Amino acid sequence: MIVGVLGGGQLGRMLALAGYPLGLRFRFLEPSDQAPTGVLAEQIRCPYDDHAALERFADGLAVATYEFENVPVDAARFLASHVPLYPPVEALEASQDRFFEKDFFRRLGIPTPRYCPVGASDDVVPALAETGYPAVIKTRRMGYDGKGQLLVREPANAAHAWKVLGEHPLLVEEMIAFEREVSVLAVRGRDGHTAFYPLVENHHRGGMLWLSRAPAPACSESLQRLAEDYAQRVLDALNYVGVLAIEFFERQGQLLANEMAPRVHNSGHWTIEGAQTSQFENHLRAGLALPLGDTAAIGRSVMVNLIGTLPDRRAVLGIPGAHLHLYDKAARPGRKLGHVTIRSDDPMALDRSLKQLLSWIESA
Amino acid sequence: MIVGVLGGGQLGRMLALAGYPLGLRFRFLEPSDQAPTGVLAEQIRCPYDDHAALERFADGLAVATYEFENVPVDAARFLASHVPLYPPVEALEASQDRFFEKDFFRRLGIPTPRYCPVGASDDVVPALAETGYPAVIKTRRMGYDGKGQLLVREPANAAHAWKVLGEHPLLVEEMIAFEREVSVLAVRGRDGHTAFYPLVENHHRGGMLWLSRAPAPACSESLQRLAEDYAQRVLDALNYVGVLAIEFFERQGQLLANEMAPRVHNSGHWTIEGAQTSQFENHLRAGLALPLGDTAAIGRSVMVNLIGTLPDRRAVLGIPGAHLHLYDKAARPGRKLGHVTIRSDDPMALDRSLKQLLSWIESA
Predict the structure, then answer these.
(1) Mean pLDDT in chain B?
(2) Which letter, b or e, does each residue of A190-210 get, where b requires 16 or more Cβ atoms within 10 Å of its Cβ?
């Protein structure tokens, strides 16, 4: 039984590592010859929109999925005409445009920050009048890891936003004075069954996810239920299959949806060691119409991304409870090269290990 | 950093799955074109004693190991002259001959059942006089999973042993009225540091490992320490590096060594989910001079081998706490096709899940 994956990055790599024990085989479609999946599975190296290659890729697949949400929708739709593709193309589409995404949340009654689309240079300042200051101006499409974003505190800052962000359609968003950012990881099977992981607390650096704590500390049951309710609306609206991540701003017991990712997600990496079933295994189970696995946490986990440079491997492996995950990628500033999850049943021990880890990362 | 592995069976497969997250790459040398590692790593397909192929295999390896203890010692020695090979060839040698192995245990003061080597047909009955009845007659070499063994209860049964077992040198062993069989998994790093997993209780069927419970129920601290002491003697005597398994018969608080395996071992598969660090990761850490990982158990685990046929995958994945591991091997009677580990913090829940699993396996 072969699973096809569009994209051969670290998410694809971790899908394969979770899927081999289930007896699955993998085939990746990926333009790069240096992809993290290159050493451990079959690759078809070509652009995503090469239809002839997509047909070769689809040949004999039990199911296909994607690990990269900027896959062209046309390519995904073409693939979906040959083989079952999950999550559905509609989810990909909704998540690729920040304006459509916000509108989609609103239609489902999921609160979001105020927002306003911008189609031309002259529309920027009027849009800011609607959202207020400070605001974040984002490109509508192709943004990830904080790329394609600009913070503006006053009208003067906004003058060049159109140019700076590449003269593409933009979205102006109210900047929320949130208490913290949390994310929910949800999974829905082909039979409509759903399961939810405990909420995760996320910390960013330079616009990229840097550290996640799971389960999110001091998280009330009602907050968990609120997040699950919102995620359930998205899953049902899209007749979704697979893992879905939604990032929220938490403010005074409310959750405002920031964005969603129709795939396994960086804020769910802790589930490999920290949950009964990992997000990767559950994504595969969902797509293959297998029963979903238990999403309960095992103790507490902290996940820290390794960005740009790697700390000493010996040092990291010497930290109690630390699990190293390297993606076999060449080092480059701002690039996610790996992550470390520390899992422990003892919160004090977890904190001690985290301190050690952070000091090794900082000295790298 | 490439790790070379002699043998491409399920143990090699699980080594690779544990090693990819550490950023390692893998190369397997394996005669079969249907090996479980074929889909997830580079293969060199050739016989183990092909020196030219061994040289190609060794090229660029950081370290080599083996996952199959019947690798020819000459091949291992040739490989070790090109690249660091762990565990040491002496361990391979000691474990390949049941008589040498027992003598080796005895020299280290580790108790064993009574035993007596047999070199010719006429020596069988005199040897049995030394061990007493019932006894087990085993081929000295190339035995595994209960193959090459014969139980004799009286002299008349012994007459044809020489012929039945292929006219090879034999070992006659006293059959022990043991209470249970347990195994210890030990690991020693290149710096001489050692770590030990909790003792495992093993149950066999048709001479093959069928079910392991870890940690072994009702296991005293003194029994654990006794097993660790014996394992430590073997590790030190061989200047061992990597994971070592020793199987013991437990009788009245004593441990009698049955056999050892200088490699990762079936009775350690539970460590993937059930221990802080798996035996596979620790074997790799040891060989690469990385710090050893924590060997403590997380809750309780039961591992059940899937032999000959596979139960329904959906049914197994629906069992609370069950983790499926398939080896991507064609089904054949008596063949290990996979295993299931059930892990839980609650012994009652564990038993309920085990009952479900066994009923699915029996109806397969």
Answers:
(1) 95
(2) beeebbbbbbbbbeeeeebbb
Contact of A89 with A113, CB cutoff 8 Å? no
Looking at the structure, do residues B22 and B126 belong to the same domain, yes or no? Answer: no
Q: Same domain, yes or no, for B204 and B304?
A: yes
Q: Specify whether A147 is located in the same domain as A188.
A: no
Is B22 in Cβ contact with A326 (below 8 Å)?
A: yes
Indicate which CATH number applies to the domain containing B168: 3.30.1490.20
Partner-chain residue, chosen from A13, A22, A290, that has the shortest CB–CB distance to B326 = A22
Looking at the domain assignment, is residue A103 inside a domain?
no
Instruction: Give residue-wise pLDDT tens across range B100-118.
Output: 999 999 999 999 999 999 9
Say if residue A160 is in the same domain as residue A196.
Answer: no
Query: CA A184 to CA A260: how far, in whole Å?
Result: 10
Burial class (CB in 10 A: 0-12, 13-18, 19+), A45: middle
Q: How far is B1 from chain A (nearest CA, A)?
A: 10
Q: Could you tell me the residue range of the domain that residue B17 belongs to? A: 2-85
Instruction: Choose the mutation target among A273, A294, A317 for the interface with B, i.e. most B CBs under 10 Å.
Output: A317
Residues 6+ apart with CB under 8 A from A199: A182, A183, A184, A214, A215, A216, A219, A223, A224, A227
Is B100 domain-assigned?
A: no
Please determine, for residue B206, whether its predicted confidence score (pLDDT) is greater than 90. Answer: no
**Which chain A residues touch B13 with a CB distance below 8 Å?**
20
Q: How many structural domains is chain B composed of?
A: 3
B231 in a structural domain: yes
CB-based contact A265:A183 (threshold 8 Å): yes
Q: Which residues of A touch B285 (CB under 8 A)?
A: 317
The nearest alpha carbon in chain B to A339 belongs to B21
Burial of A117 (0-12, 13-18, 19+ CB in 10 A): middle
- In a domain? residue B95: no
**Chain segment B32-72, per-residue pLDDT in tens:** 999 999 999 999 999 999 999 999 999 999 999 999 888 99
End-of-domain residue from the set B137, B159, B174 = B174
Looking at the structure, tell me whether residues B235 and B323 fall in a common domain: yes
Within this chain, do residues B134 and B210 fall inside the same structural domain, yes or no? no
Q: How far is A266 from chain B (nearest CA, A)?
A: 15
